[in-house]
Specification:
homodimer, mainly alpha, Tyrosyl-Transfer RNA Synthetase, 2 domains, 5 strands, 7% strand
Chain lengths: 337, 337
């Protein structure tokens, strides 16, 4: 079998630092439900990576592992089709990281634009935890352990993929054969959903999210606060669509594209109030999230079973990662017994 | 049992990048033979650490693991008393390193004087492999995995011990209890033997060593080349002892201190030729190294048995390291199943 005839492998995942929200749904979860039919999909709960900037609140990471797993199940990720696992419980990933650290220079890590930007966002400056600077090596370990061909990422994460591939090439050159596999970034069409407040990113820390497990009342309250057009003061005024979160959300979720196009035209020429648009948005989001919430509640009744599912996924992931690690170790002359 | 009533634990070891020599014997090996009676001693063949600057020659590291183990056995390190193990075969150490990277900042690593100096010596400048910059975290993992109280190091390595202890304190503070143990540097009285050429350090790369496994002829040839006193041109001239490697070696190895004192006095007042001094040195080194060489050759007949010894030591080491790792994981909220 050659790579072209075997099933392609995807690695994806999330840092379990809080409940997943509509931004995750649009940017990744929705796609994963589709990918699991066509790809061999590994989904990682990146608890170890989450620690790089959560050492002072490790309990948060621990608690959110099962919560994020519930979100996965709720949106329709099927553990029979996708391998869901907990990063820290696959120690082979830490070991691969350890060796990959020798294949990348400090200067190269410091030049990584994703790392640079995240250091800036988190305000680390010179007090970056070493684990934060080196996390591209860890990510390379996660990707290569499963010999992933495809990694779905946002545009801003492309430099991480490039760095992983540099490590792959350097390692394969040292090994004298192609043990590790280069991967491709898969950037989703709708990359990012703005926050309810109109900020570019929906983010828990900004308080501008709608969580997948949100109740009816929470959805309604969030929709009421959704940023629209600050210049659209009276119903009869022409409204603007640019940066109008209500319409951006409808673009993402309203299944009735024709009605939406009509509504947009009406809004732009004037005579359509925000309350009408928001009423539609509320309806669309309630319909989208009601079955997700219901499934989430159903699965949440037996968290033991969810943990059992994670345990089984983790065992499968370990087996694959251990095989890659064995090959890496042998190539580095680290097999003795 | 409190720490004061239990046996103290020592962690020590070598990077297996070449045969051990008289410098190792004076600086560490000799002491280990003594320590193994009074301490619980772990001796690590640091093959994984050796890779940080030997990725282009991993075969060298692999080959030297058994060679260094033979040197250990030859000098009288007893695997029944000391636990000798191979670092890379204790993956718990890589995993601990991975987590400790979150407990130390990049700035702090860059300030480490030992790291700074070794970066300078190796000519890395900005192209330092990340694994080289972060190796204090790896060393902290090695030390703490065994809850070592004592780490024998040269004076230049004291900053490494300080950094390990900082990680210990930071971790224990986060954990809310004393899981990891702080260690003390144990600096040997005779820290460093100069090279045969008079350079401060005996080092394989400088070609100024006398290996523990050296043959009679090799010892004789090396002694002939030993740096003495360049001003001592004629036998009747007064000789100088400062920097005189022949006498520095006699200081380290000649068991007859009285005769040595007399010889020194004679040399200083003039009338004693270098050839006499070197003849004595040759005799002393031949007597020191003959039994070591014989034992080495004996053990070398069955390398399979040496590997078996390493396998058993590694199993013991893994068990200890795994216990510590379990505690560390639990404290970080990384226990799930």
């Amino acid at each position: 079998m050659t790579a072209s005839t075997t099933q392609q492998i995807i690695l994806t995942g999330d840092r379990p630092t809080g409940p997943l929200h509509l931004g995750h749904f649009v940017g990744s979860l929705r796609n994963r439900v589709a990918y699991q039919h066509d790809y061999r999909q590994y989904i990682m709960l990146a608890d170890a990576q989450a620690l790089t900037d959560n050492m002072e609140d490790t309990g948060k990471v621990h608690r959110n592992v099962v919560e994020v797993a519930l979100d996965y199940l709720a949106v329709g990720i099927d553990p029979a089709k996708s391998t869901i696992f907990i990063q820290s419980q696959v120690p082979e990933l830490a070991e691969l990281t350890f060796y990959y650290l020798n294949l990348v220079t400090v200067a190269r890590l410091e030049r990584n634009p994703t790392v640079k930007e995240e250091i800036r966002l988190r305000g680390f400056e010179r007090d970056i935890p070493a684990g934060f600077l080196t996390y591209p090596a860890s990510q390379a370990a996660d990707i290569t352990a499963f010999k992933a061909h495809v990694v779905p990422v946002g545009e801003d994460q492309i430099p991480m993929i490039e760095q992983a591939n540099e490590i792959v090439r350097r390692f394969n050159r040292l090994a004298g054969r192609d043990i590790l596999v280069e991967c491709k970034a898969l950037v989703p069409e709708i990359g990012r959903l703005p926050g309810t407040d109109g900020k570019a990113k929906m983010s828990k820390s900004l308080g501008n999210t709608i969580n997948l497990g949100a109740s009816e009342a929470e959805i309604r309250a969030a929709v009421k606060m959704v940023y629209t057009d600050p210049l659209h003061l009276r119903v009869e005024d022409p409204g603007h669509l640019e940066g109008n979160v209500a319409f951006l959300y409808l673009d993402a979720f309203d299944p009735d594209k024709a009605a939406l196009a009509e509504m947009k035209a009406h809004y732009v020429r004037g005579g359509l109030g925000d309350s009408v648009v928001k009423k539609r948005l509320d309806l669309v989001l309630q319909e989208l999230l009601a079955p997700i919430r219901a499934r989430r509640e159903e699965f949440a009744k037996d968290r033991g079973q969810v943990m059992q599912m994670l345990k089984e996924g983790t065992m499968v992931a370990r087996e694959t990662a251990a095989k890659t690690l064995d090959e890496v170790r042998a190539a580095l002359g680290l097999s003795y017994f």
